Amino acid sequence: MRERTQVLIAGGGPAGTTAATVLAQQGFDVVLLERERFPRYHIGESLLPSLLPVLDILDAREAVERHGFVRKTGAFYGWGGQEWALRFDEPGRPATHSFQVVRSEFDHLLLQHARHQGADVRQETRVRHIAMPAGHATSASWSANDGRDGEIDFTHLIDATGRAGILGARQLGTRRLHDVFRNVAAWGYWRGSTPVPGPEGAIGVFSLPDAGWLWAIPLHDGTLSVGLVADKRSFNQAKDHLGSVDAVYHHALARSPLLARILHSAQQVSAVKVESDYSYTNDAFCGPGYYLVGDAACFLDPLLSTGVHLAMYSGLLSAAAIATVLRGETDETTARRFYQTTYQRAYERLLILVGAFYRIHDGRDTYFRRAQRLTHRDQRGLRLHESFLNIITGTEDLQDAQEHSLDLLYEKLQSPLNGHHPNGLGGHGTSHMLPLPTTPDHAAAGLYLSLTPHPTLRPAPS
Q1: Staple 440 to which of 30, 118, 413, 460, CB 3.0 to 4.6 Å?
Q2: Across the chain, what does the average pLDDT equal?
Q3: What pLDDT does 351 receive?
Q4: What is the pLDDT of residue 141?
């Protein structure tokens, strides 16, 4: 069986369904192939407030609000011997709350929404290979769980296949591991815990001496997601010493007095799951005929809960770029340059912020804190001088930034913004680091994102 569509989307997670919804709402022919049957389990449960404007664009916010997920109104940190709370209702933030979600339900909701908006969604259908004659993506072979297989031609491909990465990781070999954030995550679910301190529905983040940090995320099904993040070397040494992953996990929980109190009367109700949290990027996030979105393009670190944001952010940008090309309003090369610049800029800003958080706190001289630093090899290809200009404002002398951008960035990020608590990132948070490029001031490749009547790219005034 051979078919044709304007846009093929491989993968039905938040990145793929965001792109599918935006394109289908504009009347384009969209086929989305997802290898699993939803709902399916996925980690990454704590969402940022910056996602709410994207849900508004998708017309999906009401459905998410109605579903009953825990409202996340802030975060609580017990880090390096200090405790502080962060509320999302501070001035200048994109929304007063976000959500703690059961990802199987959240992702299923977005997949159903994409179908209701007009996308042709096919589950239990795996993309096997992308044909790329002369380097240009033109068609895909697929197989379904019921034994059917076929080929589908397309004008544009969006690779939303997550960390599996059918294009970047498997076919093109353009994925590049960072030396930083080569961590291991181990987590499980608990019932009967006491509330996490801080604002209503807050995520709890607790540092460990020497060996990493822990998360605690309250979910609407009455469970608490509790996870450990440690560098790979320390994790493996502890496993050799203690004998099992479960023993490492429980030993870490017991070493956090704050979290131990939360779990004092709780019962673990799941097995411990483990995943290696490698940080990676691709040499390019797009190319002739294709776009890499979400984890298929890059993966950061779970510390600031940025995964779903980057997924939906890139899904929105890629869909707007493709829609503009399909309407003949810009050429493919310019649209791809816009996408590459805007998505890479967002990823690099978050990469710097996560590194700064690890570096500026008490205990940063422990092995774990040192292991989370960007190496010189990591910094190659990063536009640190541009990131300096984008992140730090009001700096008079940037001469040294050409040579020592990262050190100067971290130095500036240690100083809190006016009116902000000195702990944490002191107001240098993710909210204002990730503005949608919706004004000429945020243009890239001479284009900016217009949201009305539908997401599309417009030329910025010269």
Answers
A1: 460
A2: 89
A3: 85
A4: 98
Phi/psi region, residue 170 (left: phi>0; alpha: psi -120 to 50; beta: rest), is alpha
- Distance between CA atoms of 371 and 236, rounded to whole angstroms? 15
- CA dist 425 and 150 (Å) reads 50
Would you tell me the crossing angle of helices 332-360 and 401-413 to the nearest 10 degrees? 60
- Residue 254 to residues 181, 206, 208, 229, 351, Cα–Cα distance (Å): 24, 12, 10, 14, 30
| Short-list 350, 293, 336, 312, CA closest to 446 | 336
Quote helix, strand, coil % in the chain, to nearest 5: 35, 25, 35
At 188 the three-state DSSP class reads: strand
Q: What angle do CA 351, 352, 354 make, to 5 degrees?
A: 70
How far apart are the C-alpha atoms of 425 and 417, rounded to whole Å?
9
If you search the block for the tokens 């800029």, which residue do you land on? 345
Average pLDDT over residues 92-96: 76
How buried is 386 (Cβ within 10 angstroms: 0-12 exposed, 13-18 middle, 19+ buried)?
A: middle
What is the full DSSP assignment across 300-339?
--GGGT-HHHHHHHHHHHHHHHHHHHHTTSS-HHHHHHHH
The pLDDT-based confidence of 179 (bands split at 50, 70, 90) is: confident
Query: Who has greater pLDDT, 94 or 187?
Result: 187
376: DSSP letter: H
User: In this predicted structure, what is the pLDDT of residue 387?
Assistant: 58
The Cα–Cα gap between 31 and 121 comes to: 6
CA angle 415/419/421 to nearest 5° reads 60
Pairing of the two strands 175-177 and 290-292? unpaired
State pTM to two decimals. 0.92
- pLDDT given for residue 159 in this prediction: 98
Q: How many CA atoms lie within 13 A of 292 on its CB side?
A: 28
98 contacts: CB under 8 Å, gap ≥ 6 = 46, 47, 48, 49, 51, 52, 71, 72, 88
Residue type, 45: E
Percent of all residues in the chain with a pLDDT value above 70, rounded to a whole number: 89
CB 365 within 8 A of CB 450: no
